[in-house]
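Render this sequence as a predicted structure.
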Amino acid sequence: MQLLRIAQGGAAEDDPMRSYNLFRLKSGEGLCCAVPESHVVPRFVNGNRWSFSGKIEEHSTRTPGFDGRVAATSVRFNGFYLFQSFDRPLP
């Protein structure tokens, strides 16, 4: 039996860095949903209101508003991470 150590953020130390599929709400409000590549996209994220915006790494600083530690916790409980991105001007 292999034991895994749990890091301070709650993720197993042996886990590789997590990649997320990033979706943005089309209304331009800056709301984003990050879903780990290994998870099913939630039902509310559909083509009518959301658009695929690319991939993001857990420790990325390229998307303002994304916090990898908070994302890991949110995914543990919800399976996805909702956050407000400020890289686009609000209408």
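Summary. The longest strand covers residues 50-57. Residues 1-14 have pLDDT under 50 and may be disordered.
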